[in-house]
């Protein structure tokens, strides 16, 4: 042998044999197999998530439909005793006027109680300051002794459902003493 030996060829073993079986190609194949397994697992997770989302959508649609169809169930159940009371009043048509009046009062109490249990509250603003959020002013009139801008008379009561306005109270509002009612001449213009 000479002092200068040639280095072994790349990929060959020092003994001059074939390349090793666990070389770079085997490492790439293992990494590829691992990546494919991860991709398959992620695909399965995606499919499960999409199926769950579809189920949630269907369930929400079904719940909304049920709410539409049976949303007034509680109110209807509360109003049935009122209907029964009205029917009993009609059957007692031969009763005296006092008995019929008492029956009507009882029916009104039943109806108010049923509405309150379902979240409907009455707005009766007599004597309170006018609130345009809850009241509808039908007119203004002078009202000696009443605070200007306060409700003097309630023409029709208003109602709220759990804090949301169903119908504003229709009211008459006290006018300020110096302006009087709308359309009337201002004080001091007696000859006009």
Describe the structure.
- There is one protein chain.
- Strands 1-4-5 form a 3-stranded antiparallel β-sheet. It has a 3-stranded mixed β-sheet with strand order 2-6-3, with no helix packed on it.
- A hairpin with a 2-residue loop joins strand 4 (158-161) and strand 5 (164-167).
- Helix content is 45%, strand content 17%.
- It is α+β, with helices and mostly antiparallel strands.
- It starts with 23 loop residues before the first helix and ends in a 17-residue tail after the last strand.
- Helix 2 packs antiparallel against helix 3 (97-117).
- The chain contains 3 helices and 6 strands.
- It has a domain at 120-181: Nucleotide Exchange Factor Grpe, Chain A, domain 2 (Roll), CATH 2.30.22.10.
Reported for the largest beta sheet, the result is: 3 strands, antiparallel
Helical amount:
40-55%
| CATH architecture group name of the domain at 120-181 | Roll
Number of helices, counting only DSSP H or I runs of 4 residues or more = 3
Oligomer: single chain
Q: Layout of helices and strands, plus pairs?
A:
Elements lengths: L23 H47 L2 H19 L5 H21 L2 E4 L11 E8 L8 E6 L1 E4 L2 E4 L1 E7 L17
Parallel strand pairs: 2-6
Antiparallel strand pairs: 1-4, 3-6, 4-5
């Amino acid at each position: 042998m000479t002092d200068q030996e040639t280095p072994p060829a790349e990929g060959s073993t020092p003994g001059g044999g074939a390349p090793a079986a666990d070389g770079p190609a085997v490492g790439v194949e293992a990494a590829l197999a691992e990546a494919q397994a991860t991709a398959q697992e992620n695909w399965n997770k995606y499919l499960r998530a999409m199926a769950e989302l579809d189920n949630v959508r269907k369930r929400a649609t079904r719940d909304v439909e049920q709410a539409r169809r049976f949303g007034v169930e509680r109110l209807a159940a509360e109003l049935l005793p009122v209907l029964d009371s009205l029917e009993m009043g009609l059957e007692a048509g031969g009763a005296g006027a006092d008995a019929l009046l008492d029956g009507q009062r009882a029916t009104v109490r039943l109806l108010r109680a049923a509405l309150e249990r379902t979240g409907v509250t009455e707005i009766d603003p007599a004597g309170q300051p006018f609130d345009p959020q809850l009241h509808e002013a039908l007119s203004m009139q002078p009202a000696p002794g009443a605070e200007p801008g306060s409700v003097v008379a309630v023409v029709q009561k208003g109602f709220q459902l759990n804090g949301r306005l169903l119908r504003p109270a229709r009211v008459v509002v006290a006018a300020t003493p110096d302006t009087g009612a709308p359309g009337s001449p201002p004080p001091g213009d007696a000859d006009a």
